[in-house]
Amino acid sequence: NAGVTQTPKFQVLKTGQSMTLQCAQDMNHNSMYWYRQDPGMGLRLIYYSASEGTTDKGEVPNGYNVSRLNKREFSLRLESAAPSQTSVYFCASTETAFLAGNTIYFGEGSWLTVV
Amino acid sequence: KQEVTQIPAALSVPEGENLVLNCSFTDSAIYNLQWFRQDPGKGLTSLLLIQSSQREQTSGRLNASLDKSSGRSTLYIAASQPGDSATYLCAVLRGSNYQLIWGAGTKLIIKP
After folding, report:
1. Do B4 and B90 contact (CB within 8 A), yes or no?
2. Residue A58: closest CA among chain B residues belongs to which residue?
3. Are B86 and B108 in contact (CB under 8 A)?
């Protein structure tokens, strides 16, 4: 009954370090997403994968890369972390693309601080 | 550019009251609108989804309405309970791509 699982939950990085946020879903969903949430702002889409084998940029992709490893897993990589990337990151999934009006399921978030 | 606004940013009411949360959007060309709940330290949970052709959706004590022409949606919570305390976010789906456009949320506190 896991749904969407993200790791790690908390991470502190120094400026310039790299790291990868992992996400896995066990609902056999085709589409997966990475968002960031900053205080006083709505969630912003970083990257999404409409189906296995495809990835596309969202609203704020700069400084990030993604990999759709297989149908279950979608990772987000920060190659050279910057303080502006301090945020809460959420992975999400839907059965198919949004236009079908599917319910979107979220992970519990990853709190990332870049010092 | 689509913008989604939720006012107020925070709301505190006594238990048992009926309340309304507001969501406004600038572009009426939406595919659907969704309401979510976010508990502290947790992810978001979908509450209600209203397709652009619909006027409202209901789930238990929750009722969400949509008025595309005025760019507004409301989430009505009946007989509020302390367990309803959370941040409530609305998001609209643009028909042209896969992007949900999010409001910043209303933090709701229900006082026992």
Report:
1. yes
2. B99
3. yes
Closest chain A residue to B96, measured at CA: A99
Tell which B residues from 29 to 48 touch A, by Cβ distance under 8 Å: 31-32, 34, 41-46
* Contact between B32 and B50 (Cβ < 8 Å): yes
Q: What are A93-111's pLDDT values in tens digits?
A: 999 876 667 889 999 999 9
Q: State chain A's mean pLDDT as an integer.
A: 93
Other CB atoms closer than 10 Å to residue A17's CB: what's the count? 14
Cβ distance A107 to B34 less than 8 Å, yes or no, reads: no
Task: Give residue-wise pLDDT tens across range B50-100.
Answer: 998 999 999 999 999 999 999 999 999 999 999 999 999 999 988 666 678
Closest-CA distance of chain B to residue A103, Å:
7
B43·A90 Cβ contact <8 A: yes
How many residues make up chain A in this entry?
115
The shortest C-alpha distance from B96 to chain A (Å) reads 9
CA distance B71 to A88: 29
What's the rounded Cα separation, in Å, for the pair B18 and B62? 10
Average pLDDT value for chain B: 93
3-state helix, strand, coil in chain A (%, to 5): 5, 50, 45
Q: For residue B88, what is the nearest residue in chain A, using CA coordinates?
A: A42
pLDDT single digits (tens) A46-87: 999 999 999 999 999 999 999 999 999 999 999 999 999 999
